[in-house]
Amino acid sequence: MNWLLTILIGLITAAACGAAACYLGTLCVEWYSISSFEGGSGYFVAFLTLFGIVIGLILGIVTSRVVAGGTSPGFLRAQGISLAEVAILFCVIALFCRLGGTIAPTIDGEQLDLEVELKCPRGMVPTERPDRNYLSCTLTPLGSGNKRLDSKGGVILWKQASESGGQWTVPCRVWLFSDSSMRTVRMLMNTSTDIEFMLPLPGKPGKEHFEWSTWRSDRFLEEKDKPIRDYSYRFRVRRVSEARSEAQQAAQAEHEKKMQAFAALTPDSPLDLWVGFGVDDTTDKHRIARVLVDRIAELPALLRSSDPEHLRGLTIVLSTVQTLPPSAAEALRQSAGVLAERLRAIPSPVKDEDNNLVGQLRGVYWTWHQLAGFVQDHKMTDFHDSMMALQSVVEARSNDSYEFAALADTLRTDLQVQHQ
Questions:
Q1: H or E stretch at 273
Q2: Could you give the CA distance from residue 405 to residue 391 in angstroms, rounded to a whole number?
């Protein structure tokens, strides 16, 4: 067998090995929950495919030369042995990868959600964290040596939380993405209460686990000098399709109820009710904005709200306004005073939740600056003193957090433009 056939065998084997490596890579992405963030999973599969091509090329060439020097040399024999080696190598590596990875368990071919209810001790009041990016419910599988593997976040069903006899029961739902028999469930009850326990559920649940388990108070993971007392939990699994369908129906019913309430509002309804609908993508923002413009004198009072979602809704609605009457100038000056007052009152050092508030107030300032330019018969210079007062407060606190620093930069730029 000449070298031309050897190279051909190497190329065919390289293609087969590359395809096998690519397929194995896609399996490993699932088994090991490799994130797609910034193309991580794609790069992993691409690298594994390239590595497989190189290994296949070497394997094909070496095998063909060994066969060529044997008693029965031949192209088909050498190619067959090379492909068989690729198949055996793939099966062995895939087996070891599967043993070290995880996969979502199923019942009757359907994937599962895990539902947990946590019963709190008397006196402990759960509170939804305002930071929407924080995962308040997570499921984490454990590998060899109890090493934590990648976790996935679920949702705490705050609207279904209930209180009885002074005790709160809080449910959560998370996709059961791992068939590891060692898993932890973590729930954040408020900004200072973090509860985690080992889930006593088999790696592959059966239909008997569709029923709620008994209440348990064991297997909690405690930090040193922070014992967990008087908490208990129960759990069950549900078909993903069933849980999702139920959630969609509940969301649709809630949306219809909200739309009915929105339609029932009158121009004289409290402004906080109007603003409460500002964060809903399906409501008519221009309808809300018209009411706010007619009652712009109440804007300073609205800016005193302690609800970040209220401030976000107000910012969204006011960003749709294109013109304001001359009488709005005084309301805007008072609003700037309220912003300065609120920013000054934020305690130092700035905590995460307070920094989120600064971020919302920064959005309010952006809207305020836009509105100031829309007041009829007025120029931005008419609001120079208000902006200088705001800048004085923000510059003094620009080192307290990145949100303060960003707002200081914005004010500095706006004032420079005003002087041009």
A1: helix 271-276
A2: 11
- Residue 312, CA atoms < 13 Å, CB-side half-sphere: 13
> Taking CA 72 as the corner, what is the angle to CA 66 and CA 75, rounded to the nearest 5 degrees?
70
Pick from 207, 211, 143, 153: which is nearest to 177 by CA?
Answer: 153
| Distance spanning both ends of the chain, measured CA to CA | 83
CA distance 405 to 288: 32
What is the C-alpha separation between 66 and 62, in angstroms, rounded?
6
Q: Is the Cα dihedral 169, 172, 176, 181 positive or negative?
A: negative
- 3-state SS, residue 32: coil
Cα 181 to Cα 187: distance, rounded to the nearest angstrom: 19
Strands 167-175 and 110-119: antiparallel
Diameter over CA atoms, the chain: 102
pTM for the model stands at: 0.60
Cβ contacts of residue 189 below 8 Å, gap of 6+? 118, 120, 124, 126, 127, 170, 195
Quick check: helix, strand or coil at residue 343? helix
Question: What is the rounded CA–CA span in Å between residue 390 and residue 336?
Answer: 7
| Residue 327 structure tokens | 């009488």
Q: How far apart are CA 401 and CA 349, in angstroms?
A: 9
Instruction: Encode pLDDT of 174-208 as tens digits.
Output: 999 888 889 999 998 887 788 999 999 999 999 99
